[in-house]
Amino acid sequence: MNILITGTTQGIGRAIAERFLREGHRVIGIDRQESSITDDHYTHYRCDIRQYEKLPLLTDIHILINNAGTQNEQDIDVNLKALIHITEKYGVQKDIRSILHIGSASAHTGAEFPEYCASKAGILAYTKNVALRVAPFGATCNSLDPGGVLTPLNDCVINDPELWAAIMEETPLKRWATAEEIAQWAYFLTVTNGFCTGQSILVDGGESINYHFVWKD
Q1: Fewest CB within 10 angstroms: 5, 7, 53, 168, which?
Q2: Does 153 score more than 90 pLDDT?
Q3: In whole angstroms, what is the distance from residue 151 CA to residue 138 CA?
Q4: What structural domains does the chain harbor?
Q5: Please, which residues have CB within 8 angstroms of residue 43's CB and are 6 or more apart in sequence?
Q6: Terminus-to-terminus CA distance in the chain, angstroms?
Q7: CA 154: distance to chain centroid?
Q8: Mapped to the 3 state alphabet, what secondary structure does 111-173 carry?
Q9: pLDDT tens digits, 132-148
């Protein structure tokens, strides 16, 4: 199948691209940076997803994964508005089999920067809207909403012992996900899954269920 993924040069997006390539799919990546992926089945377009007029002309897209995102950098324009444009341009069409938005646990908890939370929360409603519109094609649309993930973008807290200890106190499993674990979920929700649709799958190591109940021993 032909897989279109945004934000493929590092972190979660790169891990997802590599997972699909290992499974024998053709992967098309869009990112504002150059890619170091050298697989013959990978095609890369260097483009900022906000620059709609520069997006490539692509057909026969079977799976669309909206991974590109930012934090404290025009979050609503990148994380929500551009995601919507990408989906309408490439995803809502007769050849589509599955659409997946990479959201955030913050969309469910509100526990992060204001515009970031708002941008990711918008994805929740948009996912349901798209799921209804691609259902006539037999396709699914879901969002995958991670908590903490071990990626270079999070090195500022991962490498701070005091902050990291505090974060682990909030995470029942006492670790963050690897990018490869999120890629496994992405593959399952788009290739293996054919019936779950319009849902927001929270994968956060239990962070959102930690509620600090205090009582006498």
Answers
A1: 53
A2: no
A3: 34
A4: 2-150+178-206 (3.40.50.720)
A5: 26, 27, 28, 29
A6: 57
A7: 15
A8: CCCHHHHHHHHHHHHHHHHHHHHHHHHCCEEEEEEECCEECHHHHHHHCCHHHHHHHHHCCCC
A9: 999 999 999 999 999 99
Return the bridge partners of 43, or none.
28
Position 93, amino acid: Q
User: 204: exposed, middle or buried (C-beta count within 10 Å: 0-12, 13-18, 19+)?
Assistant: buried
* R_g of the chain, CA atoms, integer Å: 17
State pLDDT tens for residues 33-83. 999 999 999 999 999 999 999 999 999 999 999 999 998 889 999 999 999
What six digits make up the tokens of 172?
């029942």
Please, are residues 173 and 150 in contact by the beta-carbon 8 Å criterion?
no
Residue 139 Cα to chain centre, angstroms? 18
Q: Is the dihedral of CA 66, 22, 105, 114 positive or negative?
A: negative
Q: Burial level of 38, CB count in 10 A (0-12/13-18/19+)? A: exposed
Alpha carbons within 13 A on the beta-carbon side of 36: 3
Spell out the residues 6+ positions from residue 165 whose beta carbon is closer than 8 angstroms to its own. none
